[in-house]
Amino acid sequence: MATNITWHPNLTHNERKELTKQSGVTIWLTGLSASGKSTIACALEQYLLKNGVSAYRLDGDNIRFGLNKDLGFTEADRNENIRRISEVSKLFADSTAVAITSFISPYKADRDSARKLHEESNLPFVEVYVDVPLEIAEQRDPKGLYKKARQGIIKDFTGISAPYEAPEKPEIHLHTDKTTVEESANIIVEYLKSKKYI
Ligand code: ADP
């Protein structure tokens, strides 16, 4: 390693890309609870890291309990939750990492704002609709949340007592009742390769 440090006041995104040999992108997974977002995000993140691509997953566990622990599930709080996640994922993408966000993100306007934020900075934004029929999500119910929502213990639960606005033109539309976790992750990988993002 050279001992004399030379530096620019600021690196452009393209200079950053040349140095890291990567291009940043945000993969925005949206869908009902238990549709498979986190599971697919984990598989995708591991595939990318194992293949030398810097990737990081943003999900409820590392965002809802940290940066956004002051927010609940009212519409205003959900908007603010997604706004902050959009800004953070944009920073990851700007750093040339692959940011993988896994949040229900039920409102179209919020997802469109996330897309706009990326587009304004010329950063690619890949919306992935992780689609599954509500009945199947409810059968899976890995955390027992649907049961609690049906009992009225959890209020404002997406699909039960709060709306989910399905994406109209997602870059990728997965049907997780028909594809395995590996197949879903692979569909995303193939898309990223086709666009030369990885
Ligand atoms: P979300 O993040 O969308 O709330 P999770 O990934 O936490 O969903 O939970 C989805 C559950 O469904 C997991 O327990 C997962 O193992 C299960 N599952 C069963 N089949 C599939 C599939 N084909 N794709 C994704 N998840 C599946």
UniProtKB/TrEMBL annotation:
It comes from Cyberlindnera jadinii (strain ATCC 18201 / CBS 1600 / BCRC 20928 / JCM 3617 / NBRC 0987 / NRRL Y-1542) (Torula yeast). HAMAP family: Adenylyl_sulf_kinase (MF_00065). The keyword Nucleotide-binding applies. Gene3D superfamilies: P-loop containing nucleotide triphosphate hydrolases. Coiled coil: none annotated. It catalyses: adenosine 5'-phosphosulfate + ATP = 3'-phosphoadenylyl sulfate + ADP + H(+). This is Adenylyl-sulfate kinase. It is an enzyme of class 2 (transferase). Keywords: Amino-acid biosynthesis, ATP-binding, Cysteine biosynthesis, Kinase, Methionine biosynthesis, Nucleotide-binding, Transferase. GO terms for biological process: cysteine biosynthetic process; hydrogen sulfide biosynthetic process; methionine biosynthetic process; sulfate assimilation.
